[in-house]
Amino acid sequence: MSEDFEVILHTKSYLPDPEYKAQSHLGDYHNAYQEFLKNPEGFWDRMAREIEWMKPWDKVLEWDYPYARWFSGGTLNITTSCLDRHIKAGRRNKLALIWRGEDGEERVYTYRQLHRDVMRFANALKRLGVKKGDRICFYMPLVPEHIIALLACARIGAVHSIVYAGFGAEALHARIRDAEAKVVITADVGKRRGKVISLRSIVDDAIRNTPSVEKVIVLCREKCSVELYSEMEEDFYSLLDGVETDCPPEEMDAEDPLFILYTSGTTGMPKGIVHTCGGYATGVHYTARYIFDLKENDVLWCTADTGWITGHSYIVYGPLSAGATVVITETTPDWPDPGIWWSIIEELGVTIFYTAPTAIRMFMRVGEEWPNKYNLDSLRIIGSVGEPLNPEAFEWYYRVIGKNRIPVLDTWWQTETGMHMITTPLGEPMKPGFAGLPVPGIEVDVVDKDGNSMPPGQGGLLVIKKPWPSMMRTVYRNDERYRKYWNQIRNYYTAGDLAVKDNDGYIMILGRSDDIIIVAGHNLGTAEVESALVEHEAVAEAAVIGVPDEIKGQAVKAFVILVKGYEPSQKLVSELTYHVRMSIGPIAMPASIEFVDSLPRTRSGKIMRRILKAKEMNMDLGDTSTLEE
Ligand code: ATP
Ligand code: MG
């Protein structure tokens, strides 16, 4: 990274109501952070004590660069923190799960019911021959049985690998093979935008030539719309016939694997990230309780799918460990109309709403009259994850959904990190465009390629300077790839993102380091230029890439989706170019702007700039398994 990667920093900030800090579990962020710095292992030791263990650990951390072992010697089962302890603590009749189907159908589970059903399904899996360490692949819609089966795997020590049920047969096949899954759990159908989508037939295709697969468990939602092949397939509910209700939790070593999960594939071939039991359980409980500040009466709705890390950590393990009520739904944000999500918040009294910038920008595009139809007074925290929340989208989210008073938690983290790493803790000033500060327990910095810390205002590589409990332990069957994260800059974990900090240590994410654009020797992060474009009233979404330029090395090419009512024109091109020039400088001025109706995205909604670039350069598209159709 060259020295002159200067970034113009926004200076706006909003002060949240001091009550948030006063009432929060974390208390004063700066105090908490100082406490951590004084004794990092002591901090994590304290946090680990907040979950349930069978046997305490001998040592908090063993760091044999780049391999970490957390809570060595300790044993636990994450499901006792998520279920059993709430039963004991008098929360048995509290709602754990509220599910909402597309047609308005609703199902609820108390902690007692969830606990019972998890144990029964765990026993069913055992009866099928599933043992500790076996890999189970999920290809399921977001229904309660999915959560039940997932927790049942954890209960018996089987390793789950969840594949988003929107992926095609090929992507599923590759993941089943990679994990050598013994069992695949699916449903006959998923429901999306009023359509019934066959999942089971995709699984049929996907398990050709996968010798590891012994059984396929099918949840029949449509009163068994499919005939099951008796040699191989089992009906989800028939499996429960005659099973015992009680299933003692398998004793897991803190470092035993809990799950494998593939990254989103935004920048290349997805990586099979491996998380372990003790550190992950500690990390997600900690952030659910101290960052999302989950309290007894909270109803958390994280709109992600369980197929992404966000779903693992903040639909399932984190909030259940913290004893919250979790909302899950099969609905899409704009079907049957863009009011559906706001109506769910109103009706279910959601207090914490967690979504992605792509959804926020979609809502901006369709207009604020939709959320304005509903009473959103129950909300107390609104969050964002997945991509940079550009200032324009922040402002809209804060004003229209947050009513200028509810804290916006823009959370930066990754599949690899397992838990929130950077955000604006409750009570700290919020700065549009900045994700915020490292959470206590985490040390981050922005550095050049040699690991030298960059001063405020100078962009560079985002690194994490010390191991943390919920860090990935390896990339499944590709440990070399794991080591690369820690070897690019010695002793540091390189996240693969570009960032900049301001004078207060706030971090702004500037884009992916793979997507960096170098114009006449100056580095540009994609997010900066995209944010500037989206600021313009005509622009709904933008993506930029670097294209070869004879004089400057690279030039910026922008792809722009216009707000409804605007038409592409040469005048608009000039206006947008000028706008970028004024907000960032001549270096960032797009050399060309193409107006488009859509952008290539992952199925979780992230813009895939590498696809735009490959198309532009007539190159091979690379791995497209996670590309949305
Ligand atoms: P792949 O690693 O396969 O290319 P991916 O990086 O998109 O896919 P994830 O682990 O799902 O896979 O996403 C993590 C990445 O998402 C981060 O590295 C970052 O680029 C982006 N991200 C997540 N949250 C934020 C945020 N709040 N602000 C900015 N970027 C974010
Ligand atoms: Mg990544």
UniProtKB/TrEMBL annotation:
All copies of domain Acetyl-coenzyme A synthetase N-terminal, residue ranges: 29-82
Origin superkingdom: Archaea
One Gene Ontology cellular component: cytosol
One Pfam match: AMP-binding_C
Enzyme class, UniProt record, top EC level: ligase
Domain AMP-binding enzyme C-terminal: 528-606
InterPro entries: Ac_CoA_lig (IPR011904), ACAS_N (IPR032387), AMP-bd_C (IPR025110), AMP-bd_C_sf (IPR045851), AMP-binding_CS (IPR020845), AMP-dep_synth/lig_dom (IPR000873), ANL_N_sf (IPR042099)
GO biological process: acetyl-CoA biosynthetic process from acetate; carbon fixation by 3-hydroxypropionate cycle
NCBIfam families (UniProt xref): Ac_CoA_lig_AcsA, PRK00174.1
Protein name (database record): Acetate--CoA ligase
Species: Methanospirillum hungatei JF-1 (strain ATCC 27890 / DSM 864 / NBRC 100397 / JF-1)
Lineage, opening ranks: Archaea, Methanobacteriati, Methanobacteriota, Stenosarchaea group, Methanomicrobia
